[in-house]
UniProtKB/TrEMBL annotation:
Keywords assigned by UniProt, alphabetized: DNA-binding, Phosphoprotein
Lineage: Bacteria, Bacillati, Actinomycetota, Actinomycetes, Kitasatosporales
SMART domains tied to this protein: HTH_LUXR (SM00421), REC (SM00448)
SUPFAM superfamilies given in the database record: C-terminal effector domain of the bipartite response regulators, CheY-like
Residue ranges occupied by any Response regulatory domain in the UniProt entry: 7-122
The protein, known as: Response regulator transcription factor
Location of 4-aspartylphosphate modifications: D57
PANTHER family, sorted: TRANSCRIPTIONAL REGULATORY PROTEIN DESR, TWO-COMPONENT RESPONSE REGULATOR
InterPro entries named in the record: CheY-like_superfamily (IPR011006), NreC/VraR/RcsB-like_REC (IPR058245), Sig_transdc_resp-reg_C-effctor (IPR016032), Sig_transdc_resp-reg_receiver (IPR001789), Tscrpt_reg_LuxR_C (IPR000792), WalR-like (IPR039420)
Domain of life of the native organism: Bacteria
Organism the protein comes from: Streptomyces crystallinus
HTH luxR-type domain: residues covered: 153-218
PROSITE patterns xref list: HTH_LUXR_1, HTH_LUXR_2, RESPONSE_REGULATORY
Pfam families linked to this entry: GerE, Response_reg
Amino acid sequence: MSEQTVKVMVVDDHPMWRDAVARDLAAAGFDVVATAGDGPQAVRRAQAVTPDVLVLDLNLPGMPGVQVCKELVGANPALRVLVLSASGEHADVLEAVKSGATGYLLKSASTEELTDAVRRTAAGDPVFTPGLAGLVLGEYRRLASDPAPAAADEPKAPQLTERETEVLRLVAKGLSYKQIAERLVISHRTVQNHVQNTLGKLQLHNRVELVRYAIEQGLDEV
């Protein structure tokens, strides 16, 4: 997916910041289809223009960003949400991820980091400001260590091949497809195929769910 075909919407209640982000993304070649300054407006406009990536501030008047995220991703699971926030607070990051955000970037990020994050978010990569990824991994690990009681008739986890497990382990560590391809000396397409096969076997829908599964299995620690 080239930048020209990626439709982006920017949501922030500070007009100067919102316009600057929209301008930077448009200059980088993205198709900025809309902006919004409050929660209800964000939901209405996003439903009207159906962006591929929503760049979302959490602190919005009318409706908090996490609620905006929850509503829009609930209605359109294909939507990628990149939170762009001034807060690096543990609780804010986790709440955003749990509400459906694909990534979380601090507003201290450079323009290059932002455009790269939007590009990677559009491709389905979970993107986090360095340091925050570890926090999210730690939370999923904590949840995984407190397993829900399994039903008696619950099917066993499907078996993955050695290579699929290897790819999954690297996905859990936050590597991009390109980095995984380079490390395993295989093509980008082969990595995608392994991920698609794994998603199919595990009946998961996207890379974020795949990462969660991998972390629950402790694959990021190996």
